[in-house]
Structure formats: C-alpha cells, structure tokens
Amino acid sequence: MRRLAEREQRRWYGKQVEKGDHSINRIVEPPVETFEQRSAVKATKPSNPGVRRPVDLARRHGLSAQAVRNYERDGVLPAAQRTPTGYRLFTEVHARALSAYLALIAGHGYPASGEIMRAVNRGDIDAALRTIDDSHVLLQRDRETLDAVEAAVAVLTGSQRQPQSRRAVPISVLAHRLGVRPATLRKWERAGILQPAREPATGYRRYSPDDVRDAELAHLLRRGGYRLDHIAGVLSRLREAGGTEPLVASLRQWREQLTTRGRAMLTGAARLAEYIDAADVGSDEPATGNVP
After folding, report:
1. What is the pLDDT of residue 282?
2. 131 and 182: one domain?
3. pTM of the predicted structure, to 2 decimals
4. How far apart are CA 254 and CA 219, in angstroms?
C-alpha cells in the first residue's frame, strides 16, 4: 500500500519521494530556477522580438542548427552575443548574413564566399570587393574560353565534312600543316594536349586523325592567348564527349552553367548589400550582431 501511495504522489504532484534515514517518506521539491536561468531560456525563444535561436536560422534554409553555430565560429556570421548560461543570441542581422553567404556560394563557391563574409565582418569592404572582382574575372575568362572553343569546333566540324585521310601522319607533316615547329608539338604533348602513338620499331610519333583534330583546336586556342594547361582541359572535355558532335551539346550545357553562375552572382551581390546595410558596416568598422 505504501508503494502505491508513493506512485500516486509522483503521478499527481510530479514530486520525487525519497526515504529518509528513519524510513520516513520525504517529498523532495524540484530545484528552483534562478532569475538569470529563466531569463536566458526566455531570451532564446522565438517569441522574443528580434532574437533568433540557431534552429530558427537553420530551418529557414534547410540547415542544421550545428551548421549555423559552425558558421558563427568560423567568422562567416558576425559574433553572436551570449547569455550568462552560454546560449547564442542571434538577430535579424545574423539572418541576413546567413542569407548573403548562402546566396554567394552559388556564384562564387565556398572558399571565396567565406573570404567575402569574413572580410565584411571585420569591416574590410575593399578586401571583400576584391574577392568578388576576382570571381568575375574568372567568369569572364570562362566565357572567352567557351567562345573560342565554340568557334574552333565550328571550324573543325566544317573541315570534317570534307574527305580526309584516315592514315596517321608523322610529326613533320603535322607541323607543316599547322605552320609550327616539331618542337612545339612535342611541348604540347608534354602538357597533355596531344597523345600520339609511337611506331613499335622506330619509336617515331604517329598522329591519328583525332590527334590532328586536337592539334588544330589547340593551335586555334593558342593563337587566342590561352595557356597550355587550359587548352589541355578543353581537349580533355572533347575526348570525354567522344567527338565534336557530342561536344556541341556539352558546350550548350556549359554556357547554361555560366549563365546560371552569373545570375547567382547578381543575387549574391544583392543579398550582401542588404546585409551590409543592415549591419551598418563601414570601411574600417567590424560587423556586429546588433540591429542598428
């Protein structure tokens, strides 16, 4: 009966029952929260205007609360204020910083976006803008490369409609055809641009029709001022596509990706401008999480 009574006490009153030194039942009250603890918990609730929990910022973008904490730790978000018990207190400024960072990633990638946000958060707007400028230079370079490849593929496609010998040619013949020295072709081979076969008996290079095509494309790109490693990457894409016709479809997809990347840069710039205005960051003034 005593045990039943103890269980009833726990169920109805939510209080813990212990036995004392003399087997007398003693009701132990739960610990009372201090005013500071109650204030800290209240401050981290979303009902408190202007204050956000990590989970509140995370849900908006489909992230985990730990990811938000990591961003604040890594300087991507401005430093958050803390309650006496260690809870992070985020604000609308942090929400805008997170939106800016995620928007920048789509256009600039993770490393550059992190550099941009950290520069803004320490008040170095010029450094952030330089990183943005560098990304735009890379995008412009990719566009110029794509234009050159499309032009070269058009030339190669036209030349392939004409009857061509299927026989492999030696290095002297190919060099004469392109108007370059044999040493240039050997240099392109070392850079991974050309992959000629070798005659088993003599070890002389023999360039197949596909090798001739690659050499012509490399010659066009080289005249356009492109680096050898860049040309090697283009030809690698050509080989993976399986020829010029599949490459045309690949180039269309490549252009769509560049357009998407450019538009993402515009969106990222808009979100970053909103964050800078909200944080009231100056050229020599670090960002804070306080709403101005």
Report:
1. 58
2. no
3. 0.65
4. 22
